[in-house]
Write a structure and sequence with these properties.
It is built from 11 helices and 17 strands. Strands 15-10-9-16-17 form a 5-stranded antiparallel sheet. The chain has a 4-stranded antiparallel sheet with strand order 1-2-3-4. By secondary structure, it is an alpha+beta fold. Helix 4 crosses helix 5. The protein has 4 domains: 35 residues, no CATH class; 142 residues, 2-Layer Sandwich (D-amino Acid Aminotransferase, Chain A, domain 1); 63 residues, 2-Layer Sandwich (Dna Ligase, domain 1); 66 residues, no CATH class.
């Protein structure tokens, strides 16, 4: 963001210690904290931070969301999971970056364990597990400017190395660093979610899986949990980008990351609406064309409407 602003002749200065950036273009000023702008509604951020409230807002205007319920105890979690049938997703209502999320949970013991892992002051969401591609659409001032498919971290066994050594090799790959310092994040071998996921595959860190065995390393597709991103900006269906824009508008966010599940056949389902969305999946995807998503944000900050996916698609036609 800083380098993009400087190339555009915009002065940038860091203020304080909370990642607050001050942008000056002549006499005009703009502010960013992450991707929360000086125009971002605090109420919209609170709504987006509460998944149950967000779902109610979206469902209230007819947008498709995952069937499920907010629960506060194990018995309620088991009851909802039984009603939904098949596999469910279990996640903290107030969580972020994939922490505490478990997907494809299929039996009572696993549901109870997932509930205890996700439990917090805001309750736990039990939702029907939907198949499909996990897609993030970046919306700036009501315009979809980029889209990426996210895939969960996984590695292929060679029949020689243990899971621990496979993860060490995975973490040593290009551009992987801890936290959010690199284009990709490492997998934390000390994470309880990882150990539970390995257990669900009848594995431990010391197991040597057979050659060719695919070892799942992440419950979800979050980049912060080791996932990868594939740019889909040029091929995302207009239905998906339009739905993302509508979701951002209903919640009230000027800059938002909308997560959807897009099945091969059938309508997409909105998973979450994220305030202060990360940009690295668009700036440096593992596969596909990097997208300059900082320029649309800077354009918006200084009172202009950014160009979106649909507009660029028309130019290529």
């Amino acid at each position: 963001m800083v380098s993009s602003a400087e190339r555009a002749g915009i002065e940038v200065r860091a203020v304080g210690w909370r990642r607050l950036l001050k942008f000056a273009k002549g006499e005009e000023l703009a502010w960013l904290n992450g991707t929360i702008s000086h125009r971002t509604s605090a109420i919209a951020c609170q709504i987006a931070g509460d998944k149950a409230v967000t779902k109610a807002r979206l469902a209230g205007v007819g947008l498709p969301v995952c069937d499920g319920a907010l629960v506060h105890d194990v018995d309620a979690a088991l009851s909802v999971a039984q009603r939904l049938g098949s596999a469910v997703a279990v996640k903290p209502n107030l969580g972020a970056q994939g922490r505490g999320v478990r997907t494809g949970v299929t039996h009572e013991g696993a549901v109870a364990a997932a509930f205890r892992n996700a439990a917090g002051a805001g309750g736990v969401l039990i939702e029907r597990h939907h198949p499909g591609c996990d897609v993030r659409v970046l919306v700036v001032n009501g315009v979809a400017v980029a889209a990426a498919e996210r895939r969960a971290a996984e590695t292929s066994a060679d029949g020689v190395r243990s899971v621990r050594d496979l993860i060490r090799s995975f973490n040593g790959g290009d551009s992987r660093e801890s936290a959010h310092r690199g284009a990709l994040s490492t997998v934390d071998v000390h994470c309880e979610d990882l150990r539970a996921l390995l257990t669900s595959q009848d594995l431990t860190l010391e197991t040597v899986p057979g050659a060719g065995t695919v070892v799942r390393l992440g419950w979800g597709a979050n980049l912060s949990r080791g996932g990868i991103a594939i740019d889909r900006t040029d091929v995302i269906p207009s239905l998906v980008s339009d739905m993302a824009c509508q979701a951002a508008r209903i919640v009230g966010l000027d800059i938002a990351g909308i997560d959807l599940l897009v099945p091969e056949n059938g309508p997409p389902v909105i998973l979450e609406v994220n305030a202060s969305p990360g940009l690295r999946m668009h700036l440096a995807p593992s596969v596909g064309e990097p997208r300059d998503v900082t320029s649309p944000i800077l354009t918006y900050l200084f009172d202009a409407t950014p160009r979106g996916i649909a507009e660029r698609s028309q130019e290529r036609a």
